[in-house]
Amino acid sequence: MTKNVAVLMGGWSAEREVSLVSGANCATALKEAGYNVTSIDVQRDMAALITRLYPKPDVVFNALHGRFGEDGCVQGLLDILAIPYTHSGLQCSAIAMNKPMAKKLFSLAGIPVAEHLLATPDEIISGDLMARPFVIKPLNEGSSVGVQIFHEGDNSPVLIEDMRGASKMMVEAFIPGREFTIAIMGGKALAVTEVKTERLFYDYDAKYATGGSVHEIPAKIDKDIEVEALRLAELAHKTLDCRGVSRADFRYDGEKLVILELNTQPGMTPTSLVPEQAAYVGITFPKLVSWMVENAEFDE
User: Fold this and answer.
1) Per residue in 89-114, is it b (16+ CB within 10 Å) or e — as a string?
2) Integer Cα distance of 106 and 216 in angstroms
């Protein structure tokens, strides 16, 4: 019997536009794979969303990115409705989106993390809280939204307008070197991609604008570093109890790998890294999204 799949996309986070592209891409591929697909542009009206989800689909493909769609909120609603959905469950999604908590668990599991501290916007703008270079990040955003890097010798002040009304932000030591990313599918790491960009860092535009970055797959690294990167990515996925597909991002300073974050709902746009790695190991995009649908779950 052909499955009915509802694709959730859009939302109201800072990543709305990316989510719409991911969702449309996934919906097209799912139709190509033979599923009955309904696309839902999620608005901030849960009653309307619940109405759109009746009669209940067999599976929800969650293509939402950012807050409320990636942080456990929608996952909790789908658990209540007992509708299987792609990607990770409520608890894992909430922890992965909370950068300080995820880093604490990674560290306990033996995965190297960057030194960091939490501070209010007023504390941050009063003066550097650690030696430069350092990074300022929101605690619960994705796609590099709100990220600022302050380099050694750069006397640029930190501006409170960039804090997005947050009560606290993360100040994190900047790890120089190369950036690697690894997709994990069903607990198995697929490959190591090196991400290169001519921008100051792999920011929002570098991630999603055509030509914003170059993805070298497989990364040209020593075999022992490749093996360790794959191991750490799988360990990160397991540590947070992820399911389905995730993506782990690392910096490599020439001596050790340091995890930046684990993304439980990685982008599925034409420039995204997970579909690219899947294709590299022989998995077409329709097969990738079909696997995600067939392995969807909910928490009872």
Assistant:
1) bbebbbbbbbbeebbebbeeeebebb
2) 26
Whether the pTM exceeds 0.85: the reply is yes
- Known catalytic membership, residue 34: no
Catalytic residue chosen out of the listed positions 19, 39, 62, 143: 143
Half-sphere exposure of 131 (CA within 13 A, CB side): 1
Is residue 121 a part of any domain in this protein? yes
Catalytic residue (choose from 208, 213, 272, 290): 208
- Reference 121, options 143, 99, 104, 136; nearest CA is 136
Pair (143, 64) in one structural domain: no
Residues 150 and 163 in one domain: yes
Report the number of distinct structural domains present in the chain: 3
User: Peptide bond preceding 55: is omega within 30 degrees of 0, i.e. cis?
Assistant: yes
Cβ-Cβ contacts under 8 Å for 2 (sequence gap 6 or more): 34, 35, 36
Q: Which domain holds residue 268?
A: 95-114+176-282
> Active site residue: 13, 15, 246, 290, which one?
15
Q: Which two tokens stand for residue 296?
A: 């969807």
Same domain flag for 135 and 220: no
The answer to whether residue 252 is catalytic is no
CA distance 214 to 29: 24
The radius of gyration of the chain's CA atoms, rounded to the nearest angstrom, is: 19
Place of tokens 């409520």: 90
Q: What would the pLDDT profile of 83-137 be if each residue is shown by its tens digit?
A: 999 999 999 999 999 999 999 999 999 999 999 999 988 888 888 888 889 999 8
Task: Find the catalytic residue in 172, 251, 267, 272.
Answer: 267
Catalytic-residue membership of 261: yes
